[in-house]
Amino acid sequence: MNVKIKIFLFTVFAILISACFIISIILLTSIGSNKNTQNIESNSSNIIYKNDSISNEFATLLLQRINKSVDPCDDFYEYACGNWIINNPSPNYTSSWTVYDVVSQNVGKLVEDSINNCNINDASEGLIKAKQFYNTCINVTLTEENKGIVLGKLLHTGRPENDKFNKFLYNNGKWPLIDSSWNLSNINISIESQIGYLKKEFGIDTFIYTYAMGYDIQSNLTILLMTGEMLPLGLGIFSQENYFNDKIMDAYSVLQEKVAYLLARDSNLTLIDGKINKNDLKMMLQVEIDLAKVIQNVYMKPNSNTTDDLYSLITLQQVLPGFAWKDYLSSLLPKTIYDKILDGKKLINLDSLTYILEVKKLLLKYQFKDLQNYMIWRLIKYSLPYMSTEYTQLLADFSAILYGQPNQVTPVNETCLGYVRGNYEMPNLGYAITEGFVKKNFHTNTKDDATILIKDVKESLEYIMLQSEWMDEVTKSNALKKAIFMKTFTAYPDWVMNKTLQNIYYKDLLAPQGVSFVSLNLMLRSWAVVKNFELIDTKTNFLDFHGPPVATDAWYTATTNSFSIPIDAANYGAVGAVAGHEMSHGFDATGHQFDEYGNINDWWTNKSEEMFNEKLICMEKQFSKYCYPNIGCINGKNTVNENVADLAGLKAALKAYEIKKITHHSGKEERLKLIPEYTMDQLFYLNFASFWCGKESKESLKMTLDEDSHSPGKYRVIGTLQNIPEFSRAFNCQIGSKMNPIDKCSIW
After folding, report:
1. 379, 410, 441 - which closes a domain
2. Range with the lowest mean pLDDT among 30-39, 205-214, 521-530?
3. Would you say residue 123 lies in a domain?
């Protein structure tokens, strides 16, 4: 797989140990440090019992999770998490439910409160617009009245609900599957133009994924990445395996057909003979299946040939003359950026010539009608979550088969909160929402405490690296240099609290009242795309947060050598493990290819790399042994980077914690009044494990095993702790027990 993509998705925006343990490592290292605010009970022994409200809350939550009938040395995950699902039943609209989801839901409630109660007179333009987006999204009455009418009108006539919104030109928005007025003779643009137009005007990637990001070779230059590997097909990113599952494809086709009938009704379109053409339906699906095959064949094989080369327009036309590059790029990019490319600037990183060649073959294989059906379906699919109940129920019915979850529609407020909070790829409204969230819920001392803790973990990681046996002195020197240069961002970027800067950022975003959320969604997608593309040929902002602050993730970005922890992780999370995990990515099998400036520049010596790879084999073999009966086994090779990061992260957090204990040692052992049987060291490991408490369906677990670069939560706990001798000492696990195997893997 392409190094850039590994970094950008698997590493950059990895879902991590974050935002979940209500007290976490901060509690463990700070209990006793504020004796003026805590209720401390002491006795004649050398033990101090903490009895303050924070300690008691933590203890209560811990007791609700633990299953004491299990031996912690036999199955620590079941011991730490066995009773969690009993006290935290899964909602009826999801296939998996974890501590991460609970915290995300709780943060969502805080976000909702900050939106509803923000002071409009003191709010920035962005926050006011975000509030309008949210209010429109949760307006169920308006959504139910609109049904599919607004979307149907846009597709059939090309005219948007608001004159200032983007429209379809040349009558090219019609969905031939239900619109008999569509005629190829009325289409006077190329298929390449249509692909580019849908991305720029409506934010829909159909055959090629494009995104402006820092360039690997020269990290301070922002270029346009063009790839197929990250293309989010109708079933999501990295979902190719599902396209070879007959049960899922049958259900997907049913979804497409039922949506088509509803949209035809709401658009007042008369179907020929009153029916959907089955062959058209079949061919539309086959386009998507064939595209999934292309992605898998080009990117998912060990010998996939990807590149970091930059191309000019002229070069692209020379190496791939069969693709209408001018049509595509002129429809895709803002004019100012396209003009630079016309002038000969090398600003495009096409990571695989083979992919475009295969896409072109696919485009030639099918009739324009089939391709049009697929592309418009992709736009419709992005709109379904924000349409009336008839449509969202169809989506829920399909998700029930895809993920093995109940066919219940996700509550509207949760859908809308997730939307305004933004995502890893395009923060969208996330920066605006953060302003209101911080003003109402966030405390400066929390950010300061997290910053100090991150610094401690960073220094511990540096120490661990310098003590490693497999790194030679040259590699250690380079590693230390990279660690020192690494930038950290905690909680939120300062600029989001600057009203003037917020107003500038969101000045071009429209947020009119009285329009449907379907229209607002497509308009926002386009705005975000243009916002991103305008960064092309500018210097990468090393102070950018690289994601929405009001999230429950943390991420490491290789091309800027930076690490970010959003608000949730700083306020609630196991900050030490998060920081250690993410920062260690800068020094793993992919991170070592980027230097302290984020440029591609392998700083490992051949000897160090050889020894590191030998150690990886141990981790690969260990995790490949973990299996679920009748479901599958973990792919140790595909998950090794994340497994190593879990181990390195916990070791770094542990080292920081141990140093903290020494510097704050009071001469007596500290325990919690409500759970006196546990030492602080034991609570450290229980805290680490508790984030992964959860439950998921067989279908969801199968998708995790097939597609995810992370191991399932259960084995992120067991696999990591089996390699930590300090854990076995803390719980007195005998050598040879399941949690204390004789053979261990050690990377750092």
Report:
1. 410
2. 30-39
3. no
Of 664, 691, 682, 673, residue with least CA distance to 726: 682
Paired tokens of 593: 């290819």
In whole angstroms, what is the distance from residue 225 CA to residue 244 CA?
Answer: 28
| 185-194 own/partner pairs: CB under 8 Å, 24+ apart | 187/368, 187/372, 189/327, 189/331, 190/324, 190/327, 191/363, 191/368, 191/371, 192/323, 192/324, 192/325, 192/327, 192/328, 192/331, 193/324, 193/327, 193/328, 193/330, 193/331, 194/331, 194/371, 194/372, 194/375
d(CA 297, CA 229): 10
pLDDT of 446: 65
Residue 118 lies in a domain: no
Spatial distance between the Cα atoms of 44 and 64, rounded to a whole number of angstroms = 31
The mean per-residue pLDDT over the stretch 23-32 comes to: 36
Residue 124 lies in a domain: no
**Residue 209 token pair:** 């994924």
C-alpha 571, offset from chain centre: 19
Residues 304, 182 within the same domain: yes
Note the pTM of the prediction, 2 decimals: 0.81
CA–CA gap between residue 373 and residue 545 (Å, rounded)? 38
Q: Report the amino acid identity of residue 600.
A: I
Contact 697, 36 (CB under 8 A): no
Strand pairing class (632-633; 209-214): unpaired
The 10s digit of each residue's pLDDT in 148-186 is: 999 999 999 999 999 999 999 878 999 999 999 999 888
With beta carbons less than 8 A apart as the criterion, state whether 737 and 748 touch: no
